[in-house]
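Async update (no meeting this week)

Hi team, since we skipped the sync, here's where things stand on the single-chain job. The sequence we agreed to prioritize is pasted below, unchanged from the tracker. I ran it this morning and attached the output directly underneath so nobody has to dig for it. Comments welcome in thread, and please keep replies under the output.
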Amino acid sequence: MLFVGVLVAFIISTVFCIVDIVENVTTSYMPLLQRILAIFILFIPYLLRWIFKIQFPLSATSLFYIFLFLSIYLGTFVNLYNIVWWWDLVVHFASGLLLGFLGMFFVNHLGKKSSGSVMYVFIFVFAFSTAFAGLWEIYEFIADIIFDMDMQHAGELVGQSALFDTMFDMIAGVVGAIVAALCCAILTYKDKNFALQFKVTRIKKQKISQIEE
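Output:
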């Protein structure tokens, strides 16, 4: 249901974008391409499931769709990034949380002894999430230079103000990583098999044939 809700929101936004382009021929096609790409991204879990014959936990796909709704739909399509000054911080905080829980997929496959260690889970989840937060800022920097985008708001902010924007984004991501690491560590302390909830499982051949039918 969550997938359908987000998909409908993306499709409606795409329809309005097409109408705007038809009514105003001078309108850029970039917003339409962004919406088409966003719809494609929604189907990535299903594509991975079909190609690699694997099943993702419901919690993982739910977090994925919620993050896409917050960042792409509300942030970009509804333009909350420009309307609400703190929305970018909310999205980076949410990304820190999402990446932190995503790290549990790797913890789960590193071995039963590692997945049951509270300290190991905390350090790994925190490091995994903060590493990707840094990589994302590098991606924004490269995208602005190569593709002449404005992901770091360099067109609006100059000097130390632009630096503050990047640093606050990273801090929000780190705070999200800490929250995720604490949650995962506490839940691991209460249940040593907590990491198993993030286990990616193979789809059995009988189940695959039922899906294809």
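Quick observations from my side:
Strands lie at 54-55, 201-202.
The chain has two domains: 1-83, 85-200.
Reply here if anything looks off.
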